[in-house]
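Let us work through a complete example step by step.
Step 1: write down the sequence.
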Amino acid sequence: MQILNIIRPDDWHIHLRDDETLTLTVPLAEQTFTRVLAMPNLTPPLTTVQGILSYRERILAIAKNTHFTPYFSVYFTNNLTAATLHEAKLCPWILGVKLYPQGATTHSDWGINDITQHFDIVSVMEELALPLLVHGEVTDNTIDIFDREARFIESVLIPLQQRFPKLPIVLEHISTAEAVDWVHSMPAHIAATVTAHHLAFNRNHLLAGNLRPDYYCLPILKQQHHQQKLQQAVMAKNQSQFFLGTDSAPHSQQKKYSACGCAGCFTSPIALPLLAEVFSLHNALSSLEAFTSINGAHFYQLPLNTQRLCLTQSTWEVPQNYSAGGDAFIPLYAGQTLSWQCQPTAGQPTHE
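Step 2: predict the structure and record it as tokens.
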């Protein structure tokens, strides 16, 4: 049996949700990750430092691992002020500002339509070296959904970076060759997160044979050549600009399996085993630690974790569902078998 021992990973893009759902998402996250960057698209969104600190207390009230550390970003709305940015910069638990184009994804209704109208705010961010974390898709319905990330890079991100060349930027959950190429062309203060599901799957898994809502996410899964470009980027030796952000996004079974099914893959229970499987398939296990445990910490200027995590090459079946607050949450790959698993830890969430 092959054993892989790595620095304990971090997840630099996760949706923990709120209220009773935290009783599921927090235990799952702390089983695998020491640090997480929890997204601010709650209802209502996290737009103030006080609101973020209150949310942090709700998370920590559930966490059992004393080493588990949640970090946050401020939601970029039309009402974001320079004063909030200065306050956020002084808060050790806030790592940046999250940009959602309005209507791009779940709970993005408070996002902004035109960042050029907010260059005064972006200028302050550049001055403070406060990273801009970007959901990189245009929302124009005349543009094909498979082209929206590439179009965003061309029409929004490139002009933004040229105007604010010192601004740290993380292009989140990238899904295209264009995104990989853009990050490769940029200096070290430009980076990208990549999900386990964009590395493991392509649009055939979503659409071929039948429509599979568990694989529906935004940015949507792309063609195989985009998937392969992502794999090459994260598995390359000595790469440092790409790191893990699972974008694990739990939705109740009722909301996910509906005529207006929610976008998002619930991957928290399988992220590391799935990554180990993908990296192993490409003989790149030696690159897994940098992607999951080193590059993100370096980007956010945080120390590496002192704890370690053990992955073993042994099969297990992904639970059919997990439960919280009376709702069922179906993980990606439910009922299927993975060939790697994390060493068991205490506090396993309830599943059926």
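Step 3: interpret the result. The chain has twelve helices and 15 strands.
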